[in-house]
Write a structure and sequence with these properties.
The structure is a homodimer.
Chain A (H helix, E strand, L loop, with lengths): L1 H13 L6 E2 L2 H4 L17 E4 L3 H14 L3 E4 L16 E4 L6 E5 L4 E4 L5 H10 L16 H7 L6 H4 L6 E7 L5 E5 L11 H5 L8 E8 L7 E8 L2 H13 L6 E6 H10 L10 E8 L4 H14 L2 E6 L3 H12 L1 H12 L5 E5 L2 E2 L5 H15 L2 E7 L4 E9 L3 H20 L15 H23 L22 H6 L2
Parallel strand pairs in A: 2-4, 3-4
Antiparallel strand pairs in A: 1-2, 5-6, 6-9, 7-8, 7-9, 10-12, 10-13, 11-12, 11-16, 14-17, 15-17, 16-17
Helix pairs in contact in A: 1-3, 8-10, 8-13, 9-12, 13-14
Chain lengths: ~475, ~475
């Protein structure tokens, strides 16, 4: 405990401003975990609400000097436990570093602090006549720093790509407290290893991102939205394949299954067709040919067996439909709560991606897994990317229900890998999928990931237990995983 | 020498097929260097013409066992010496690994061996109704493996990005001969550190790429080409800024100065306006609004002071104009030869990028540098990306001319960095710019690059002396650089 006492004293001395270093249980309570369901958290030594890069560096130096773990945190809207506190850690919250430092419309770039809310950056870009496309589900509360640390996706990705494609440069506090600037301000540049991409998605295990230079885009113009209902999941999946095979690039191509439709309609009635087995939601950017593209999508949906196919007549209607998609997670949570009166309903959100052509196999397989485990699993996701978010409904008060949910979770990941997919399309590894990551990467991949980790964080203080597969030689699977595989 | 003898015997034993292991001076001669002008090369121990990943791995294992350097090579069309042999090295040529393993039109992916010629991949993609956009200047002879190893750019980048944006996954032979597969086959995926991006652009210093999964795109449709001549470099630069500021995204935006125009016209007469100080070449993808976009570009060029502005009436005319741009390097080389009858004329091709808004400053600065050093420097490049390729004309038979050329080369890089740019937009570091890389990255950046290098190649056998800044503590600049800076 001497180490802890010394470290705390040094932390206070290094960051003497009131309210920056939180130590009491009640003050630290909001900083313990993210939105992940199956992940526990530890008791940190302190929470630092950093306001400057210097404060982040000072906190890391104290941690390095005492060998304490460091857990960086954004808005804690993640779904994998990547931001969860570990015992004895110095948690560094970046949410107060929320300045947009510069927007350069001519260069189509912005320089931002990590605590900037994604929605705020999007609004600011819009004020300059530009767009910042990435739109993770939590974009109204998530931070850019968290988006970069997890390489967050969203609905735009099918056309506009994930967060990483918009990151030009970073400022990063390294494991020894030194400050690195990497990347560039130019449109092109190949000087040196691509450390920017290495830090992007590394979930705070290689360094703490304290400034981000993002690329902005000119606005795509108006868009046109098509919604099609299907009597079968397979029909919707086939429509997705047909749209991609036709050489189209919709700006959004989302799928909601019947359970999600019912949950959303239950949560906020908006006249969705809850008798359909699946709803496909597509948008295309209009130039003058948007109308033709929308008509082509409608035609392909009908050919794939769609029942009702409707093209939104105005932006408000389209926005209502996107809103329905965006509230899927929240609606499912509410639905899960209502499903177990007197219990403790909740959802485990999974995140898998397969080659687009295997989407129907994935979705029908998930339905079979749900039946076999006797749990309700709703399916919603970015169909155009083959990226699905099965929501597994469980009663947390019932260990058998939790257990069945976990088995379903693992079986879904296993199926995704068997179909040539990945264990995470966009949510990341966090604490949730370290065992599955080992399975996906294989021993050489795991060894290399650890070689990089050791090179950048030799003492292993940065966000331990997250993002990486168990070190070579260790098993590291959860008891559940050991029982079920991988 | 015992090591060398042993290593050779082991190499022959591991790869017993005739013609795979080349040892004699004459057989090895074609594999000694790339197209870079200022870079020397050493004498390799052997050249391995690998036909399989197993042969690559076998060669690397022999090298690792004996501590010999390994130099991987594609078509040797690079311009930085990255592929140049070093003394005692096992050079591994990948050009014979030239199979297109699979094209999956539904997933829009292709799996290829590294020796596939860029043009061949583009043609094969086209046969499947798709495009592989990256088009480095040498695309008709360069290999995909070399493109990935250098993260090559091209004319398409202003809209479609560089090679790295099309690399989904890799197979890589590591420094110990183990075989890694990294990346994914799905549209999205965030499992583990992004090793794929780390290997991309690492110039063979972290591993040898033996298979590549690339992303393909649906074709953009027809395009429309605008060509505008300017009486000043500044006018052309201002037109570029205006086009970008207007929120346009041309698919190509190239600049050729008067020297290049004269060299091209000299090389292959095509009626280019050699009285103009600069020619701007723009293309926009047409949908039905391409006509409007082309008209807008023409209008912006006129507003920026263009003399003649012409919109190509057909594809053949557009292709002729692109052809003029593509032959710039070759034409400049021919022109340089003709400029020193009885001498040994040649060009040093530089490659710098600045924020687009600084392009005029860069170009006028380069003109001033040329005047100050008494050398002829032509300017050509990807203006829409702020990426310029000054061609410095020298007489290799005249040490004073070479010296002046080198000073100009360094001064151009120095200016680019001073303008917030980078020392290489797309050609890479190779042997040519290791000193400048240190200048650009700074000490923390250099330290981190070496940490990664040591993690993946602890013995330092992979392409030594390339791509990295001199190790921390060493100077490593060329004598010229020591005199001139940085």
């Amino acid at each position: 405990m001497d180490t802890a006492v010394d470290a705390l004293a040094e932390l206070q001395a290094a960051i003497p401003v009131a309210g920056r270093v939180l130590r009491t249980t009640d003050l630290m309570a909001p900083y313990l975990r993210d939105e992940a369901f199956l992940c526990g958290h530890g008791t940190p030594l302190a929470v630092v609400r950093a306001h400057t890069t210097r404060e982040v560096a000072a906190a890391v130096r104290v941690a390095a000097a005492h060998g304490l773990p460091v857990v960086p945190q954004g808005a804690r809207s993640g779904l994998t436990g990547a931001a969860n506190a570990v015992d004895g850690a110095i948690v560094i919250s970046l949410t107060a570093m929320d300045r947009i430092i510069a927007v350069d419309a001519a260069e189509r770039t912005a320089v931002v602090q990590p605590g900037v809310i994604t929605a705020t950056l999007r609004e600011t870009a819009a004020q300059h006549g530009l767009v910042y496309p990435p739109d993770p589900g939590s974009w109204q509360i998530s931070t850019i720093g968290g988006n970069v640390a997890t390489n967050a996706g969203g609905m735009c990705c099918v056309k506009y790509g994930v967060t990483g494609e918009y990151v030009l440069g970073l400022e990063v506090v390294l494991a020894d407290g030194e400050i690195l600037r990497c990347g560039r301000r130019t449109a092109k540049g190949v000087a040196g290893y691509d450390l920017t991409s290495l830090f992007t998605g590394s979930e705070g295990t290689l360094g703490i991102i304290t400034e981000i230079t993002v690329r902005l885009r000119p606005p795509p113009g108006e868009s046109r939205t098509v919604v099609a209902s299907f009597a079968s999941i397979a029909g919707a999946g086939n429509a997705v394949a047909a749209i991609i095979a036709a050489g189209m690039t919709p700006s959004l191509l989302e799928l909601l299954d019947r359970n999600v439709l019912r949950a959303v309609e239950n949560y906020r009635p908006m006249g969705l067709d809850t008798t359909a087995e699946a709803l496909l939601l597509a948008a295309v950017d209009t130039g003058p040919d948007g109308r033709a593209a929308a008509a082509a999508i409608a035609r392909l949906c009908r050919a794939a067996g769609a029942g009702e196919v409707h093209t939104a007549t105005d932006a408000a209607e389209a926005e209502m439909l996107f809103g329905a998609r965006r509230m899927a997670h929240q609606a499912m949570q509410q639905w899960a709560i209502s499903m177990f009166p007197g219990g403790d309903g909740g959802v485990i959100v999974d995140d898998v991606a397969v080659p687009r052509g295997r989407l129907v196999e994935l979705m029908t397989g998930i339905a079979a897994i749900a039946t076999a485990q006797g749990v309700l699993v709703s399916q919603v996701g970015h169909a155009g990317d083959g990226n699905l978010h099965p929501n597994i409904v469980i009663n947390r008060a019932d260990p058998a229900s939790v257990d069945a949910g976990r088995v379903a979770f693992d079986e879904i990941v296993r199926l995704s890998l068997a179909l040539g997919g990945t264990c995470t399309g966009e949510h990341g590894i966090g604490m949730l999928k370290t065992g599955w990551l080992a399975h996906e990467l294989g021993p050489v991949g795991v060894r290399l990931q650890w070689a990089v980790k050791h090179a950048l964080d030799p003492a292993g203080i940065l966000n331990p237990g997250k993002a990486l597969a168990p070190p070579p030689g260790e098993n590291g699977m959860t008891p559940r995983q050991r029982r079920a595989g991988p």
